[in-house]
């Protein structure tokens, strides 16, 4: 050990004469910054779980008309099958953040996997086994399954930032967070494509629920038996050692007095609400102008595919440059412009190309912000636990999502005549709701661009703890022995 320390000291001295000498205790600590190949398995399980839970969330939105007929429910009741995720997540979110920072990643993910599986099976049983004439019972059983899935959502969706901090080195954190976070919209993509294809008639809703239930069992098996610990044997970075160092209640107090974090909490929470409203209501908005459920599914797919592409590009960029603030502000500005464009073209008839292009741009600029903003939440609030800082942002998004969806539905007006409509019985005008959504998106984007300013507290703490003013890089080429490189 002493020989290794002496060797690193020699390298430090040879790089630059003005590099401050690092104490032996810090140099010894560097030798234990190590990454493990199993981190990719943990990331895989989280991605599968996140994707699966998202398919349960938006199972019914792309086939709202068929679902309403099968369950003999109104469109508003069908929307509540998605809204229940937001309502349930709000009171459970504080418990979830406490669980992640206190009980650990493994316990949280396994519990989430079991709740996710049980909810999926409950939905299938309720829709296919119950054959009574009281369709209220069938709807309630499906809603109960949705509720179990909703219980699992915060356990899953709060986890990417925590997982990235605990298992990945600093130059891979944003990318790992991006991969785990974007698996959720990937699930929305699958739901947007598969739901209209499988449930082309109301009678096939049980088949759709079975298709989504089978993967949950496999994922639960992988999580329960495959994830053996919450953290690796040795930390991958300096900040991982102190992850969640602030007590939960003290962390909440620090967040509520952090002006930069509060701006992010409100503005990015509004962005989450806009995208949730878009995903939930897209089919109902487009059908008024004569667009089919299949086309709405294609638009939802383009929205997510381009969002994942944008997130991949942005995640790699910020991992290399650490320009979290600049990337978020630019993308939020373009997102507001895309939202305005959608509010216009969604009200036009026979404009499939324009609608598809706008949905693609909306996703490319909007979805790509999510993982970067979650990393930014951690950077501006460090040393508060990652689950707490990222979790409260998600709670803000859920609260605002409920408000937005209820508000947008309340602002609709029933149309007396719409010859091109493919909506079935209820034909609603979405002109005013779309203007309101575009206005809210623009307002909060402007607030973020103008008022958000912060230091990168976690990056600063890592550099100071290990190399003073110098950055460090941990090689991931070996699973057994990390290599330390001093960057001048």
Give an overview in words.
With 488 residues, this protein is mainly α. The protein has 20 helices and 4 strands. The two termini are 25 Å apart. Mean pLDDT is 79; it is low at 1-31 and 469-488.
What is the overall shape? globular
Q: SS-based structural class?
A: mainly alpha
Low-pLDDT parts are 1-31, 469-488
- What count of helical segments does DSSP give? 20
Separation of the first and last Cα atoms: 25 Å
Order of helices and strands: HHHHHHHHHHHHHHHHHHEEHHEE
Mean model confidence by pLDDT: 79
Strand percentage = under 5%
Q: Considering DSSP H and I runs of 4 or more, what fraction of the residues is helical?
A: over 70%
Rg from alpha-carbon coordinates: 24 Å
Count of distinct strands: 4
Q: Largest sheet, described in full?
A: 2 strands, antiparallel
Strand order of the largest sheet: 1-2
């Amino acid at each position: 050990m002493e020989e290794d320390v002496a060797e690193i000291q020699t390298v430090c001295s040879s790089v630059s004469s003005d590099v401050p000498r690092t104490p032996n205790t810090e140099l010894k600590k560097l030798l234990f910054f190590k990454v493990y190949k199993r981190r990719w398995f943990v990331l895989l399980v989280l991605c599968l779980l996140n994707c699966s839970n998202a398919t349960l969330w938006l199972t019914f939105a792309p086939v709202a008309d068929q679902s309403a007929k099968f369950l003999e429910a109104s469109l508003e009741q069908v929307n509540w099958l998605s809204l229940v995720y937001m309502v349930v997540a709000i009171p459970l979110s504080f418990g979830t953040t406490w669980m992640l920072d206190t009980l650990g990643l493994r316990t949280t993910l396994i519990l989430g996997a079991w709740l996710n599986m049980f909810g999926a099976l409950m939905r299938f049983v309720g829709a296919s086994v119950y054959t009574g004439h009281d369709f209220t019972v069938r709807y309630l059983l499906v809603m109960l399954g949705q509720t179990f899935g909703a219980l699992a959502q915060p356990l899953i969706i709060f986890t990417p930032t925590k997982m990235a901090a605990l298992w990945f080195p600093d130059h891979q954190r944003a990318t790992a967070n991006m991969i785990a976070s974007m698996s959720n919209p990937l699930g929305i993509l699958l739901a947007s494509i598969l739901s209209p294809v499988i449930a082309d008639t109301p009678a096939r809703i049980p088949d759709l629920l079975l298709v989504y239930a089978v993967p949950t069992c496999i994922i639960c098996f992988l999580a329960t038996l495959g994830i053996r610990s919450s953290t690796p044997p040795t930390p991958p970075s300096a900040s991982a050692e102190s992850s969640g160092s602030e007590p939960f209640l003290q962390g909440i107090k620090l967040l509520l007095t952090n002006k930069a974090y509060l701006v992010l909490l409100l503005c990015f929470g509004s962005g989450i609400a806009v995208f949730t409203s878009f995903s939930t209501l897209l089919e109902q908005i487009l059908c008024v102008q004569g667009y089919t459920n299949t086309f709405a599914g294609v638009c939802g797919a383009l929205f997510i595919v381009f969002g994942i592409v944008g997130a991949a590009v942005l995640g790699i960029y910020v991992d290399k440059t650490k320009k979290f603030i600049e990337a978020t502000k630019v993308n939020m500005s373009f997102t507001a412009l895309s939202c305005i464009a959608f509010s216009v073209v969604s009200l036009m008839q026979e404009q499939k190309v324009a609608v598809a292009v706008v949905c693609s741009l909306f996703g490319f600029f909007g979805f790509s912000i999510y993982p970067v903003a979650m990393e930014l939440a951690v950077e501006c609030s460090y040393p508060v636990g990652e689950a707490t800082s990222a979790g409260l942002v998600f709670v803000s998004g859920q609260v605002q999502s409920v408000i937005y969806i209820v508000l947008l539905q309340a602002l609709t007006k029933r149309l007396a005549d719409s010859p091109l409509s493919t909506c079935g019985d209820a034909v609603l005008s979405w002109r005013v709701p779309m203007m309101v959504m575009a206005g809210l998106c623009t307002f909060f984007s402007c607030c973020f661009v103008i008022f958000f300013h912060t230091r990168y507290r976690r990056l600063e703490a890592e550099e100071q703890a290990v190399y003073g003013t110098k950055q460090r890089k941990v090689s991931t080429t070996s699973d057994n022995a990390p290599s330390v490189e001093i960057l001048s």
